[in-house]
Amino acid sequence: MFNFTYYTPTQVVFGRDAEEQTGALVKAQGCKKVLIHYGGGSVVRSGLLDRVKAALDREGVAYVELGGVVPNPRLSLVYQGIELCKKEGVDFILAVGGGSVIDSSKAIAYGLAEDADVWELYDHSRQAKACLPVGTVLTIAAAGSEMSNSSVITKDEGGVKRGYNNDICRPKFAVMNPALTATLPPYQTASGCVDILMHTMERYFTPNGTMELTDSLAEGLMRAVMANAKILHADPKNYEARAEIMWASSLSHNGLTGCGSDGGDWASHGLEHEMGGMFDVTHGAGLAAVWGSWARYVYKDCLDRFVKFAVRVMEVENTGAPEEVALKGIEAMEDFYRSIDMPTCFSELGISPTQEQLETMAKMCIVAGGGKKGAAKVLYEADCLRIYELANH
Length: 393
Ligand code: NZQ
Ligand code: ZN
Known about the structure:
The chain is built from 16 helices and eight strands. Helix 4 (about 75-90) packs across helix 5, helix 7 packs antiparallel against helix 8 (about 210-235) and helix 11 packs antiparallel against helix 13 (about 320-340). It is α/β, with parallel strands linked by helices. A hairpin with a 4-residue loop joins strand 6 (about 150-155) and strand 7. The strands form two sheets. Strands 1-8-5-4-2-3 form a six-stranded parallel beta sheet, sandwiched between helices. A two-stranded antiparallel sheet has the order 6-7. The radius of gyration is 20 Å and the shape is globular. 5,6-dihydroxy-NADP binds near residues 42, 100, 151 and 192.
């Protein structure tokens, strides 16, 4: 077990009609003017944006709006947001949407707090010293950005997708009404469930120090996500299942399922970020498409964890033959992905990269990782390329 710091400063307001409290939550932050940041229109169509504005109006909070965030949120809109906020004297960012909107909000908040190019954070050429406060009204259970210290932005030129982690961007509050996620297309619901699972799996597959309590929390979370993802596949409006998944999205990525470990593996995320940057795929679906190839490539180097996962999460019988059990666990997870219509290879994801594109992604993945990636097995450029090749059918 490693020493750890567990820091989760985000106030969670969870349940039906929770968004009605947004005005009071923002007002309690003592800000002068708010940017309401949102995506491509789902919050307009659902009426949520109007309800949030009415909640701010009731508390006499002034605001301006900026919509248009796309999945894999772009740096160009972040720059626009920074300019707008400077002009309007905004001192609080309210994200109404999913991980993309929240990440774009965090980037704007960084950009406003310091007089330097915000992309320097994402290309890791400097560290942030300050960040304006961010609050969230969550509309999709997936990325966990509502409690995480991460923000992932894509630079328009060259499709360079990069993450930046710093505790100072953790949102002040997260408003989570599971009913708001009922309008999601099934593909987004399922992709979100994969992302939630992956945030815990990334932390689980490491040979370096773990705790039994953390493992049990992680295993319980993964079992609950799979069970409720299947319920939602058959019954998308099921509120209880929506609630289970939504709470899991936060707990999976707020650090809880990593306490005591070395920080985890994160290679699948690194591999997916290059796919997202180059092909603009949905993050969770991209993870599902590459995970099996990653797992088969690395499992022998982290065999105990893969066996534990197979037996305790995927309910594989422990026959005493570790490699066989580990492989059955990987197969069972891929079967689960298929059961909720998620891809397990690139053709099912709808992409067919050329060899040159695979090589570019492998190179960029290792550059982003600072020379290597992963903990279950430490990967270098040739390893990443091999994993991409294994997934490319
Ligand atoms: O833009 P709108 O019209 O709102 O549509 C969105 C979008 O098309 C739609 N949607 C969201 N809520 C909806 C809805 N449609 C109907 N009803 C609703 N209630 O869903 C689509 C996906 O939204 P997005 O915000 O992109 O989803 P997600 O939360 O999965 O975020 C993905 C982004 O987060 C990054 C990913 O890489 C990706 O860029 N990640 C961020 C992390 C973090 N900050 O901690 C960690 C993750 O690992 C991840 O990398
Ligand atoms: Zn993720």
